[in-house]
Write a structure and sequence with these properties.
homodimer; alpha/beta; 7-stranded mixed beta sheet; 14 helices; 12 strands; lyase (chains A, B); zinc (chains A, B); aromatic amino acid biosynthesis (chains A, B); cytoplasm (chains A, B); DHQS/DOIS_N (chains A, B)
Chain lengths: 353, 353
């Protein structure tokens, strides 16, 4: 088992990575929680695979369990589902000392009675390497993804790489897109480790290391900067163009796929500016391509890409802050005036169109 | 001007109490905010009185202002209004560095893009002495008041006692109920100051002192205990029975009126237990009665009161923690098993019925 300690200004907690740990979840939870009422919040897909076993274990461990299930998919990150979950907690008379377990429920846990305790059991690679650390919770609005949310730290994150064996290959591979992002930001041994991944199944083989490395990096960033200020912006590497691609694709691209395209595109943008060494984009593209991740942007009109970027949360005043590499493992921040965006982005789009 | 510094584990900010300060709001806001977009969130009643003037000043001060108005009343503390406000911010392209000003908007500010900056301009006595300090935000659910919310600290709280002159007398007086609660918890000079209040108009005369004393006390509590753990529970004095009365009254009693009844009732409960000196309930009732606040509980069935108490947020496990006085200015916490509640509460209800 690998244990990564996450320390923020508001909370300290552990991320534990252990094969088979979901089958001993009660034992892990008992290290941080006394017996209490627990809501197990999951989606229809993951719930069908694991909810019964987890509930049985928790009950045997002395916890009272209410299972709450939302439909699988991004559409459940809605006001409607939030309201439904909050009202279910209220009707079950949950009090402030009770808890929520799951990987979809951070926002609900953060607002019900101004916050009840939370443990995360992420079961997808994307959730394990990306959303499990950092305390970000979110809902989507018609006007944009993740426009509503909170910063809310769990008491424990328990990651069982075994759950990846039931993940559809496309979802396994999309999570690997975020792993490549982390490895490119960290460089060194972590970047070298990616040489071992030559096909999608290799991700399963190396999952414990890939997850532990990614989580350790993210924990280090979150420790330095709990909210999104300086260091934490580094995690947006590949996300500026990536988010635009994801938004404009209207569901065609999964998050990790859009990030994969965004990683290669941002390197090309900064290679053209002479700020990233030529060849970096191709080196990253090679690591993404072996598992089948897309590396070339789809045809997109410059005006729609720019419009999507202008509403990005990374816009501060009249500038959009980009993350680029001066070398693998050497990220930098570069604020670009909104008025210059077209000139920076257009060459990359033309190359793709 | 009185300035009270509030320090919590997550933020430091000032509460400024100054007559006429709402007419110089831009100046005060400039001490904490650079020019940015501001959403001025208010209700129909307060907005009609002040929104134009505040907007004009803010715009003259270099801020871009969007005024968002919700209907006056508790019914606006709803998912529907929250969603409407969040979507209005999104459609106006507010980013994370923009801000929200108002006394109804803390929850919206805390969840839009995981938190935008917030300044409170409370215009009712209840908001000035009670909800302006402590960072609690809340929504109501069909199953109970304030069941959803967050802890979220503002950058500044600006209190203009002049706004109390436009407050209906019943609302002025209900706010005074919370002032009496604070004075009873603090004792000494603060309690003596209440001797000066012999009729509702005296509240206006002494408003700056009453507000400053109440806010200072609350700031001291919040500093020791940002979330509701130990010290902060003291602020629940009078609220255990008070909340039940408010809930069961279904809108008949304003919050401060229910608290007034709850203050007297809890003293009677603890006088009967021999834990509060006999005469305390009458001393508090006298201070409340001179301004016309109710001091005797309405007729309530024991079973409905107990049911309301069992769902109280102050229930931890099988106990409900009460606040009582060993003397004026000497509060204590007393956990009471839920199974004993009936025996503690019944005598007070019988006396009132």
């Amino acid at each position: 088992m690998t244990t990564i300690e996450v320390k923020t200004t508001t909370a300290n907690y552990a991320v534990k990575v252990k094969i088979g740990s979901l089958m001993n979840v009660a034992q892990a939870i008992k290290t941080v929680w006394t017996p209490r009422r627990i809501a197990l919040i999951t989606d229809t897909t993951v719930g069908a695979l694991y909810a019964d076993q987890v509930q049985t274990q928790l009950m045997a461990g002395g916890f009272a369990v209410t299972v709450l299930t939302v439909p699988t998919g991004e559409a459940s990150k809605s006001w409607t589902q939030t309201m439904r979950l909050v009202e279910a907690l209220s009707q079950a008379h949950f009090t402030r000392n009770d808890g929520v377990v799951g990987d979809l429920a951070g926002f609900v846990a953060s607002i019900y009675m101004r916050g009840i305790r939370l443990i995360q059991l992420p079961t997808s690679l994307l959730a394990q390497v990306d959303s499990s650390v950092g305390g970000k919770t979110a809902l989507d609005l018609p006007t944009g993804k993740n426009l509503v949310g909170s910063f809310y730290q769990p008491d424990l994150v328990l990651i069982d790489p075994q759950t990846l064996t039931t993940l559809p290959q496309r979802m396994l591979v999309e999570g690997y897109g975020e792993v490549v992002k982390c490895a490119a930001l960290v460089g060194g041994d972590f970047w070298e480790l990616l040489q071992s991944i030559q096909q999608p199944d290799d991700i399963l083989l190396f999952a414990p290391q890939l997850i532990a490395r990614s989580v350790s990096f993210k924990a280090q960033i979150v420790r330095a900067d709990e909210k999104e200020g300086g260091q934490r912006q580094l995690l947006n590497f590949g996300h500026t163009i990536g988010h635009a691609v994801e938004l404009l694709g209207q569901g065609k691209w999964m998050h990790g796929e859009a990030v994969a395209m965004g990683l290669v595109a941002v390197c090309r943008v900064f290679e053209a500016q002479g700020l990233t060494p030529v060849g970096t984009a191709n080196a990253i593209a090679a690591r993404l391509a072996v598992v089948g991740l897309p590396t070339e942007l789809p045809d997109l009109a410059l005006s729609t890409v720019l419009e999507a970027m202008r509403h990005d949360k990374k816009v501060h005043g009249d500038q959009l802050t980009w993350v680029y590499l001066t070398a693998l493992g050497q990220p930098q921040l570069q604020p670009v005036p909104l008025t210059d965006l077209a000139a920076w982005v257009a060459p990359v789009l033309n190359a793709a169109a």
